[in-house]
Specification:
The chain is globular. It is an alpha/beta fold. The protein contains ten helices and twelve strands. A hairpin with a 3-residue loop joins β1 and β2.
């Protein structure tokens, strides 16, 4: 049976059709236009998939914090979705799963991506903010109230930079999009003759995309900026290892495009800060499903819920 995976982001909404064999057979994307609310988005999505093969239901991924009742309780980029009846708004698709976007992403990676075969998996998704996800002993972890695994809001330094949430020194303070821009400006100013400094003078924002491109072209300042963020990533990973000791920590999101230039310093810092007993026991790697990970994970969650319902009714 085909199933839809719908990933609602603050800017764009992605939708995929997953076959019974796990293959993405159709894909599409539209602007979210959050101000229109969930019902208006559902109407536009319905038009987008109107000529697609039939589906047996849908899983929906949402860029917001969700409680155990599957209601969005906080979503800075989807304010109109907070407290809304999402299951009702998207009822025409046959909603089988409603989940936070990073939970969907880690579920997809765990089932068919880079985390396949593990039972203890962690994910840090480095995008506009920093999302987190956990699979513990073969189960997606949501916490007592549904808002567990917000790994981007672990405190690394109580006197550190302000996080977009309003508090200080969180993982997101350094590893969210703004953190990469801050690092780019710092190292660009320290190397005024570098291609990075030239790009900034020309009005380009030194985000992760620009840093990755310039670093690939040999810009030392860009490489230093990425390595600086990598060290903070390593500190975050060391904390995860001390508390959870997963088998694998995956790095996802747009800033993961920095690749080994980010992971190398992160791994070195993480190993330096780990206790001897756990050093080297946890791998650090890149997620494998790319920008469709949350949509794929949402469809797979829908399939898991459908299978569970069938088992209960036998």
């Amino acid at each position: 049976m085909n199933l839809l995976g719908i990933d609602i982001g603050g800017t764009n909404t992605k939708v995929i059709l997953l076959s019974s064999g796990g293959e993405v057979i159709r894909r599409g994307e539209i602007s979210t236009i959050a101000s229109g609310g969930p019902a208006e988005l559902a109407t536009r999505l319905s038009a987008l998939v109107s000529d697609w093969p039939e589906s047996g239901g849908a899983g929906i991924s949402v860029a917001g914090l969700m409680n155990l009742d599957r209601a969005v309780v906080q979503a800075p980029n989807l304010r109109e979705f907070v407290g809304a009846d999402l299951a009702g708004a998207f009822d025409r698709f046959g909603v089988l799963a409603l989940e936070n976007d990073v939970n969907c992403a880690i579920y997809g990676e765990w089932k068919v991506g880079a985390g396949r075969g593990t039972r203890h998996l962690a994910m840090l998704s480095l995008g506009t903010g920093v999302g987190g996800g956990l699979v513990i002993d073969g189960e997606l972890y949501r916490g007592a109230g549904g808002i567990g695994a917000e790994l981007g809001h672990m405190t690394l330094d109580p006197d550190g930079p302000e996080c977009p949430c309003g508090l200080r020194g969180h993982v997101e303070s350094w590893l969210g999009a703004r953190g990469f821009v801050d690092a780019g400006r710092k190292y660009g100013s320290e190397r005024p003759d570098s291609p990075l400094a030239a790009a900034i003078r020309q009005g380009e924002e030194p985000d992760a995309r620009l840093l990755a491109r310039l670093a690939g072209e040999g810009c030392a300042a860009a490489r230093e900026a990425i390595a600086d963020r990598g060290r903070w990533l390593g500190i975050a990973c060391a904390n995860l290892v001390a508390v959870l000791q997963p088998e694998l920590i995956l790095v996802a999101g747009g800033s993961a495009r920095c690749g080994e230039l980010l992971l190398g310093p992160a791994l070195a810092e993480y190993e330096r800060r780990c206790m001897d007993a756990v050093r080297g026991t946890v791998d650090l790697g890149l997620a494998g499903l790319g920008v469709e990970s949350a949509a794929i994970g949402a469809a797979l969650l829908a399939r898991a819920n459908l299978d569970a319902d069938r088992t209960r009714t036998r």
